[in-house]
């Protein structure tokens, strides 16, 4: 791996473009439903216990969190979507903030779109994938919680996810588990391919 993952810090939690870091560093955004395992994915990649805070309360990330990885790359953790207990107004505010970032940020190289491998992608998951394809933003699809499914059923679940999303075969697909680190090296390899 080309990054020193021991050299990691939070640059800023931004609410709008006025607060984005003024750097030329490439950025990889991470998007997914509340409780899809986004914080666990980040923590596993960075080999930390709770760098990105995992919360028993979904919908906790309400800003764009820019994590500086070895002064080489920013991970941008965007608010989880699809969480019902947040007011409609609040959800629209987040939606606008996420959309502004994804459609205007020149540093953005790709979006890691996380889906729960156990379930068929939700309407929100489909909408996110279609949004990224519409704006021609490179997608790395990561199916989380693979340890919760017998390996013999992985192919079946992968096919279900790809069919529901009308998955573009030119996109990367990574099966991942933060529990046993399945897919960790593959996820890093794909991310690095966008940062060169």
From TrEMBL:
<dbReference type="InterPro" id="IPR030393">
    <property type="entry name" value="G_ENGB_dom"/>
</dbReference>
<protein>
    <recommendedName>
        <fullName>Probable GTP-binding protein EngB</fullName>
    </recommendedName>
</protein>
<dbReference type="InterPro" id="IPR006073">
    <property type="entry name" value="GTP-bd"/>
</dbReference>
<keyword id="KW-0342">GTP-binding</keyword>
<keyword id="KW-0717">Septation</keyword>
<feature type="domain" description="EngB-type G">
    <location>
        <begin position="24"/>
        <end position="196"/>
    </location>
</feature>
<keyword id="KW-0132">Cell division</keyword>
<dbReference type="InterPro" id="IPR019987">
    <property type="entry name" value="GTP-bd_ribosome_bio_YsxC"/>
</dbReference>
<keyword id="KW-0131">Cell cycle</keyword>
<dbReference type="Pfam" id="PF01926">
    <property type="entry name" value="MMR_HSR1"/>
</dbReference>
<dbReference type="GO" id="GO:0005525">
    <property type="term" value="F:GTP binding"/>
</dbReference>
<comment type="similarity">
    <text>Belongs to the TRAFAC class TrmE-Era-EngA-EngB-Septin-like GTPase superfamily. EngB GTPase family.</text>
</comment>
<keyword id="KW-0460">Magnesium</keyword>
<keyword id="KW-0479">Metal-binding</keyword>
<dbReference type="GO" id="GO:0046872">
    <property type="term" value="F:metal ion binding"/>
</dbReference>
<keyword id="KW-0547">Nucleotide-binding</keyword>
<dbReference type="InterPro" id="IPR027417">
    <property type="entry name" value="P-loop_NTPase"/>
</dbReference>
<comment type="function">
    <text>Necessary for normal cell division and for the maintenance of normal septation.</text>
</comment>
<dbReference type="GO" id="GO:0000917">
    <property type="term" value="P:division septum assembly"/>
</dbReference>
<dbReference type="GO" id="GO:0005829">
    <property type="term" value="C:cytosol"/>
</dbReference>
